[in-house]
Specification:
With about 290 residues, this protein is mainly α. The chain is built from 15 helices and two strands. The protein starts with a strand and ends with a helix.
Length: about 290
């Protein structure tokens, strides 16, 4: 059960609890939605927002309703089934549920078949011979990323559409590439991606070249000898400020943005106070 309370959340003195007039509906299921706020009473990142929605039964039901309107609820149902399987300890129950998940969501003859890489699909088929509670973990992760990217309100994608109309999408694509680089932990992969980013966005004759201060560019070039996952932090911040100053004000007035508000109003009215979600904070939008 949840309470609307005029879209306000009750006060709490505990660190990490939501403040009044938050942008998320309070639920009574263990207060799980309070995790949308960190210890500094600030909204946590967009990816964590999505994690909270999947973990909170109340918010998850509303997200499921949204997915049904988009004809893609099978992704969420698969994710939930995988979570349920992970809780099983009895071998016979695990085997039964694992095969049920396969028949419902993996089999090519299923009406609810989800979209997975062929390699992951083949690995699952082989694992069915000796099913385990974790056999769908890789597939679940892929579907999670698919929902987060395509189903959760795509503020970043809408902003990218506007930038394309302004012929300046290279700034956002560079910013996204830098964010993805930060998640890398393998040194060789980090080095390869760092050099790819340089050639695509910083090299002299690149068609997607972004505008950076000479000193920032020179420091990156020096650090490319032994690149780290944060090699582009300074450049990324500079491009972020450029988008916030030059592109974002026009975006807020654009038809692309206005149409986005209209199309997603039902979902946002249920989940989010639009004045908070569509604030003047560019970083908030880039995180979705």
């Amino acid at each position: 059960m949840w309470k609307r309370k005029q879209r306000r959340v009750g006060n709490s003195q505990e660190s990490g609890q939501p403040k009044p007039s938050t942008s998320f509906i309070w639920c009574e299921h263990g207060g799980c939605c309070t995790r949308l706020w960190n210890a500094d009473k600030k909204l946590i990142s967009g990816s964590q927002h999505f994690e909270v929605i999947l973990r909170c039964p109340v918010a998850r039901d509303v997200f499921k309703e949204f997915l049904q309107s988009e004809y893609s609820e099978e992704n969420l149902m698969f994710w939930i089934a995988c979570e349920d399987l992970k809780n099983e300890t009895d071998p016979s129950t695990i085997a039964e549920k694992a095969r049920k998940i396969y028949e419902d969501y993996i089999s090519v003859s299923s009406l609810k078949e989800i979209n997975l890489d062929s390699q992951i699909r083949n690995d699952i088929s082989q694992s069915l011979e000796e099913p385990s509670s974790m056999m769908y973990e890789e597939a679940q992760h892929q579907i999670y990323n698919l929902m987060r990217r395509d189903s959760f309100p795509p503020g970043r994608e809408v902003f990218l559409e506007f930038l394309r109309s302004e012929c300046s999408e290279n700034n956002l694509m560079f910013w996204i590439a830098c964010e993805e680089l930060k998640t890398e932990t393998n040194p060789s992969t980090t080095a390869a991606k760092a050099r790819t980013i340089y050639h695509e966005y910083l090299a002299r004759f690149s068609q997607n070249k972004v505008s950076l201060d000479t000193q920032v560019h020179d420091r990156i070039l020096q650090n490319l000898k032994e690149p780290s996952s944060t090699i582009y932090d300074e450049a990324q911040l500079q491009i972020y400020d450029l988008m916030r100053r030059d592109s974002f004000p026009g975006f807020l007035k654009s038809s692309v943005y206005i149409n986005f508000l209209s199309k997603k109003s039902k979902f946002l009215d249920t989940h989010v106070n639009k004045s908070d979600f569509f604030s003047s904070d560019l970083r908030h939008k880039l995180e979705f």
